[in-house]
Batch of 2 targets.
Target 1
Amino acid sequence: MTNLIDIKGVTHAYKTPNGPLPVLNNLNMAVPEGEFCAVVGPSGCGKSTLTRLVAGLMKPDEGEVWLHGELVKSPRKTVGMAFQNPVMLEWRTILENVILPLEIVAPRMSKADKTERAMELLALVGLEGFENKRPSELSGGMRQRASLCRAIVHKPDVLIMDEPFGALDAFTREDLWQTMHALRAKEPFTAVLITHDLRESVYLGDQVIVLSGRPATTQFVLDVQYPGDGLRDLDGLYTPECADMLHVLRDQIKIAQGREPEEAH
Amino acid sequence: MQTLKKIAIPVLAISVFVALWELLVWANGWPNYVMASPSDLPEAYARFWNLFLIGSWQTLWRTVAGLALAVFFGTLLGMIMGFSKIARDALYPLLVGFNAVPKATLVPVLALLFIGQHNFNTVLMAFLISFFPIAVSVGIGLSTLEPEYRDILRSLGASRITIFRKIALPKTLPEFFGALKVSATLAFIGTNLVEIISPHGRGLGALFLSGQTNSNYPLMFAVLIALAVLGIVLYYAVVALERIFAGWAERPQH
Ligand SMILES: Nc1ncnc2c1ncn2[C@@H]1O[C@H](COP(=O)(O)OP(=O)(O)OP(=O)(O)O)[C@@H](O)[C@H]1O
Ligand SMILES: [Mg+2]
């Protein structure tokens, strides 16, 4: 078993008053250890549902989710989550918010160690000096940075992100993409990132998975060959190689939405 | 300067109110058995000060005891309703119906059920009248908790108790205190209701009743004012608690 995340033939339907609503249909996905997997797909196709299945928050009707060679049946401590809404606890300071997962995962860890670990991450995302502020005193981008720190403070194997940058302005978003790369360089983790932004998926992903419209299935997998080596830089997005990849993804999204892809390219 | 203003403005408002009251009585030439004026009150307080002290204490402790019960059982009910949809569907109509019953009708019922247990009856009434807002606010607060809040901890395998303690409980505190302010006033009304309606009662309500039977109108008004003061004290005690436990919910003002 070389893949850290292995999703095999997952099918799921929600029970609604109007009968079952099929959301995922025989979805397959494999993410090797340390890889960053971006997932795109039409709105409402079942992306958030997928994250909840990977996190073990719910069980699929059919198929299996494997993490680290173990079948996922319930939530596990080795997972970190971040959402579009940074869900900061307003009654805690930023530092206390970041420490929260440690209180669950490592209750024996000393207060000083917890603080040290959290401060290390806050410094890494540029929030040094804000640790004693309340979430309401921070901007949306800063809250999202803190939320990322909280998602990885307990050194999870898998980081699951559901459109974490969706509500941010373009500049803040690009800043956070770079922060994301900086974090990965410092703390290796395997990541699943749900996004609506194709450039984001290419800039951050090692592979991009395109899901079909609801019920979602794996429609297309793009192996990202980002121009240049070493740390990815934003200028790379404006090279012909990236333009080609973005074009392919756009066509796939159109197919997923049930529209014709553009002809020549 | 700020604090001075904070104190000065309400004091001024109360002074204006008292002055208008005095003026109204004086202008209409009402004798004090129709409507007592503020200037009649000091004499009443001076004559019966010990009764006022005893009565205030009795009214206060029974109200607070009833309120404490309401907080405990109201929160418990709210938790049950907040966590279980079945419990919510089952209990909600019952609670609404119970809350709609005029509580004055319960006084004779309680008096018959627990004959002679005046303290018990009073505390019970304060409880019965005041637990509803607490139960509803806690129930709604818990059942409307955004799923993401729960998921941050649930995805780590945290137990329901932990999620309740670390997330749901603190998150509902602002709503809880909002309800507690209403409940404090209601509990106070409940206590007085029993004190005034039941024969041989105690507390400020009983003092009011004795003023009535002895046609001592200034005394009756003096009791009303004392009740108002006690109500204000109770209310601001809750506000102080709110500042301590849910002060974070106050957004900085711009
Ligand atoms: N708890 C639920 N009960 C019933 N239906 C649900 C539930 N959660 C989601 N759905 C439905 O399932 C479908 C997929 O939802 P999901 O949130 O996974 O989509 P998504 O791809 O994340 O959408 P978006 O791009 O808008 O975030 C939607 O049609 C939604 O209405
Ligand atoms: Mg979603």
Target 2
Amino acid sequence: MAVTQAQLKRSGVDHSTAEPLLIARNISKAFGHVQALSDAYIDVYAGEIVALVGDNGAGKSTLIKVLSGAHRQDAGEIVIRGQSATINNPNDSFDLGIATVYQDLALLPSRDVVANLFVGRELTNRGILDRRKMTEEANRVVRQLRTNLPSVRTPVRFLSGGQRQAVAIARVVRFGAEILLLDEPTAALGVKESHEMLTLIENLKERNKGIIVVSHNLAHVFRICDRITVLRHGETVGTLVKEETDSTEVVRLITGADLL
Amino acid sequence: MTAIFEKIKQPGDTQEEDSRLRRLLSQREVQLLLVLVVFTLLVRAGGAKGFLGPTHFPIFLSQVAPDMLVVIPMAMLLIGGMFDLSVTGVANLSVVLVGWTFSRLLGTMDDTLLIILVVAIGLTAGLIVGAINGLAVTRLRMNPLMTTLATWWMAQGAATGVAGGESRHNFVGSFRDIARFQPLRDLGETFPFLQEMRISTLPMPVFYAAIVIFLGWLILTRTRFGWHIFATGSDRLGAALNGVNVNRVTLVGFIATSVAAAMCGIVWASRLTSAPPNTLGGLELRVIAAAVIGGAALTGGEGSVLGAVLGLFFMHMIRSATIQLGLPVYWEFFVLGAVLFTAVAFDAWTKRRADTQ
Ligand SMILES: Nc1ncnc2c1ncn2[C@@H]1O[C@H](COP(=O)(O)OP(=O)(O)OP(=O)(O)O)[C@@H](O)[C@H]1O
Ligand SMILES: [Mg+2]
């Protein structure tokens, strides 16, 4: 289900010589009797946003988690920058330059923003935590995102849904990863915050990141993405270039209704 | 992004000074310290003039020290979202193994060697029970409450079984030094002020406790592993998704707690030069309650070493105040219970208030 070069041209990204940052093909994953993924495919190039859409339970989060190392696929291949990759755990995924914002954010409520930004990737100086440097860098990232937290020492428990989402995104930005996986980044947000989040994601695209965004909101999808990959019952049924399609067609692919 | 990072309302935001004082006063450690000071003054006013005075304080410290060895790793275990009921059983097992080994091997080898062997056996027992607890909870996903209740009983049963109804008294004389040696004694002769302040008479367990407190503080606040403990207790799944090895955090926590409990047992055996299987009682609840009073959350993710230290001080202060004031000791438990109740109620109240803000 790869895209043709002609389609890519029209998506506004010149990939004629480039190879995808990430390809996941023939991915399958079962949880007991539930076949969450059976034949999933997705790819993403640098400097583009691919939307991953599908009904509830279609397997979107599972595919994201396979790529982030939270789950190990039963079968299928992951290729990162042209090289076959094995992702057994979250650290493997980080090391390949993949950073993930999960649907439930995976934040630490009792810990402050600094600790949340650096969890699993703390900075040390001769074995001792470099708390000053982490605080400075946290402030820098928060500023860079044109954000305005009262203090990076505030426990995440006290933040609003939107602020938490921003912390989760800030973490990903800080990693400097090239491949970003965002699972429903606007789901918990109001109209204004959603708008700001989408702008932020577009900014990240400008920085030449390859971004996969899961979303149920087709208006958001059509606003920011270049291509749309549709997952149904764990199977990729197709990838559409935004300029060549509209939401009716996407909905039909999602639900499996006749495409006449 | 300004709206997303919308400013959080904080009380006294406009008045910096006021806000700093409030923040200080909102820290559990500071609150607890104030309570301890007030408590001390009240007890002194109530008639026990020497309470925590220069004569009492060093004795008090050496009484608290064995529990202190255990409360620090227990607090770290709680911060990591777990807890361990088995420490009393482990400590008693260690006591009995010490007595048993002495009674079997006394005279067969060099005394120093024997002492090293005895201590190694005691600590190994702790290591084994800790590893069983940790592996059961992480690999087999067994419930920590039931697992450590079971290993408590097994360890206690093994202790009674090995003891076989005998209290053993065949100890190597110098084994007493583990609990009684006063490392600063000589220093006290050259610096009289150390003697006046009774620092030179502090026995070894106080120094073991000081080392454990320092290590606990260092690990928890200054190392990646410490932050991983907080992360694991704050949200186990979230921490794991971010690459924290949550099972290692839990396993190390259980092992450290059990080894500390074994060390506590060795200190007691040395102090009493006797090894009955019921040397320790109620250790688990004493240290868990102390850690909770000191701000460790039973749900994990919160707490501190200083809080645990102060919490344990409070527990022991209540105990010695009861004695010094000549109150009937039967009431000691009532007071301990009331303090614990108040601490938990206060916790719930601050959480409720924070949630509605
Ligand atoms: N850890 C798990 N254990 C068992 N079943 C799971 C697990 N995770 C997902 N599933 C199942 O796999 C299927 C796909 O779930 P997934 O969360 O990937 O869907 P989704 O497309 O993200 O849905 P949504 O839009 O609701 O987020 C569902 O049937 C779900 O119940
Ligand atoms: Mg999902």
